[in-house]
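Q: I have 344 residues here and want to know how they pack in 3D. Can you give me a structure?
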Amino acid sequence: MELERKGRRIVRLNVGDTNLPAPQCALDAARLSMANAKSGYGPSAGLPQLREAIAKREGCDYENVVVGPGSKHLLFALVSLLAGKGKSVALPLPSWPAYGLICCQTQSKAKEMRTAPGNNWEFGSLPSADAAIICNPLNPTSTIYDGGALRKAVEEAEGNGTHVIMDEAYRGLAFEPIGKLGKIRLRSFSKEFCLESWRLGYAIAPAEIARKLERFNRITCTCMPQFVQEAGIACLENEKEILAANRRIWKARADSACKALAAHGFEFAKPQSGIYVFAGHEGITDSEKYALSLLEKGVAVAPGSDFGGYDKFVRICANQPPAILEEAIGKMVKALDGKGKRKR
């Protein structure tokens, strides 16, 4: 941001920003809602009509749905309620840095499980813990866990008393359908519907936990803005066409990025969803130093060290047209000090 203020052009591939416009139906619904807005607070669990639409989408009861200002807020609430001081949370690595930070803030002990790209970042079974967070599709790799193995791991963990939280923020951007797993699931409108700054997400949970989430909302955010929720309803009403169009864009972006990365010796598991590629290279020994050196060349990426100590990797958000992605990856190769020669 400081370089941009000085007039430098920076290709931002470091943050999970879709770089796509909000759906027109969401804009229209929000404008109409604001034009007809009345004063007063709304329900802390979300507008009834939005909760009903979500329940239909997820195949659950209305009482199992709680809406919040983004899935991150609801994740923090869940870890606070189900883990907390003196309790543990199982985290397969690599993982979104917010998971570890939430554990720190809630004084929960993170039980980290390191995985590798060779087996598509699969983690096997979960250790004994009070809670577990599983992101599927996985941020930062955009891979999808094997359905049978994941189901077995989740069912075993839940059977042993672990509260498994399935983070499905990227589910609608998966290139192939993903089955529903787990009693507690989180979804977001940020990536699927390109509503990042609108802050809208929801949790599906057993009724007792859902009531606790509602009370958490009541003493923190109070309620969600009505116009944002009505925009969410419009997105769900037009979900099929919106997500189909967005998946096509992300598939083209991912294919372009992967082709350019593979040509220069980068290692990665092929993305099975939008919006990232988690790429490693023998020429990267310190991902943070590499990311900083790359910033000087006008490209921002996220160092792999932030996702669980993967110092030879960087996370690339493929949020640009193919030509710009290829240009940025060319600069990534130059930052490798000659170790990223094109494969023949």
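Q: Anything worth noting?
A: The chain has two domains: 2-20+241-334, 24-238. The CA atoms of residues 57 and 236 lie 8 Å apart.
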